[in-house]
Write a structure and sequence with these properties.
Blueprint (H helix, E strand, L loop, with lengths): L10 H4 L2 H7 L1 H11 L7 H13 L5 H34 L7 H14 L2 H6 L5 H12 L3 H26 L3 H42 L1
Length: 215
Amino acid sequence: MDSGHTVQLPGFLHTLEPTLNHYGYLAVAGFVLLEDFGIPVPGETILILGAVYAGTGRLNIWLVALLGFLGAVAGDNIGFAIGHFGGRPLVERFGRYVFLTPARLDKATDFFERHGGWIIVFARFIEGLRQANGIIAGISGMHWAKFLAFNALGAALWVAVWTTVGYFAGNNITSIYNAVTHYTLYVVIALAVLILAWIGRRVWRRRSERAVRRS
């Protein structure tokens, strides 16, 4: 893309320009990491802004993506450790300072327990769940290796979507961002249905095979 072209950024990105101008790649990694264990900072927004900067030649898109991915995985693992070692009492005691109230924690935990490991992947795209999914996984007693695998997959998809959007969007970033966030929930629901259908089919096949062996 033309490095001489200056993109007119919308308000939600423009407010973060001084931070990114001053701290560069460190801002991308740091904000994403902090957001992903519950600190209320605009991690997703600064990842998009970093990609927009890369699209105009001010940053390297591969470094933005790599640091965003590493920050996302590290942040969620810090959240996992908080949930695993501190448990629900710790989260309820200090969660209100990062807007993680007991009511929100109950809702997120229930959603997590009903959908299992795959929700870690989808939670990455859902505001509120993105910030809390590591903590909830730790509280629920999920094995760390399983969490790490789903978390890395979700982080890779999330970073890929938003760095691609930011890099190629240019002046259309506002309308694209609004459209993607509007339809994300529908995409997540569709993917969940497909995964559940696949799981159901496998369970049905196994039961059929067992029935044949017994007969």
